Automatic annotation (TrEMBL):
This is Uncharacterized protein. The lineage of its organism: Eukaryota, Rhodophyta, Bangiophyceae, Bangiales, Bangiaceae.
Length: 231
């Protein structure tokens, strides 16, 4: 007869197997939704819809991978472009592998105002993160186009919603570095409200144009409703 500990281990193993099966099933669908999104609402909601397919408290694996990829690429680029002024390499306890760590002062600097839109190096870091997410989603053929200047990086072609989704994920990670913890009651409502605010902020600060701007071309860039979201 199995002990209580053994039974609990069996349950955990079953949960892990179930999670892997869900992840394998959702990833291709989520990638397609990201690639084929046609408006701001669908860009954000593709992950939210994934959650409702099984449990409300479950996490969209692809949505989490967007955050992981965006944060990793953006922070690494900020460290490189700042010539190591931002972030430092540190080896965690019981580990032989060094990792890049941001200090609170670094995070506060990036979070101050529209830093990504006003600082050239930070913009390049954000655009690199967006490009990494596009590649991860398998959407390079749709959302990349040859650069105007030979030898430079490909131009990212997307919606304002794609850009702000990636920027939001990076900002939320940097908020954690500063020690800021949001006070939420009940179930986690997600970041939809924050994303909508960021859409409006970027809409107000970025030019209304479909022309390439610093390596980015917004598909609906000249549209006055490019930041509108269906409720």
């Amino acid at each position: 007869m199995k002990s209580a500990n053994h039974m609990q281990e069996d349950e955990h193993a079953a949960d892990r197997a179930s999670a892997k099966a869900i992840k394998k099933k959702l990833l291709p669908l989520d990638r397609a939704n990201f690639r084929d999104a046609v408006d701001a609402t669908s860009v954000y909601q593709f992950a939210e819809q994934s959650k409702s397919r099984f449990l409300k408290r479950s996490t969209s694996y692809f949505y989490t991978s967007i955050r992981t990829m965006a944060v990793k690429k953006c922070i690494a680029s900020l460290h490189l472009l700042s010539k190591s002024a931002m972030g430092h390499m540190s080896t965690p306890p019981r580990s032989r592998r060094a990792c890049l760590v941001f200090k609170q002062a670094d995070a506060v600097k990036v979070l101050t105002g529209a830093f990504f839109l006003t600082d050239a190096s930070s913009w390049r870091a954000l655009l690199g993160a967006l490009g990494a997410v596009v590649e991860m989603a398998g959407a390079g053929e749709t959302l990349f186009e040859p650069p105007a200047i030979p030898g430079s990086d490909d131009t990212v072609v997307c919606l304002l919603a794609h850009l702000t989704l990636v920027a939001l994920k990076v900002r939320e990670r940097l908020k954690e570095v500063t020690g800021v913890v949001e006070n939420r009651k009940g179930m986690n409502p997600g970041h939809r409200g924050l994303w909508k605010l960021m859409l409006q902020e970027y809409h107000g600060k970025m030019p209304l144009s479909v022309e390439v701007q610093n390596g980015l071309r917004l598909v609906h860039g000249a549209s006055g409703d490019r930041a509108d979201v269906e409720e």
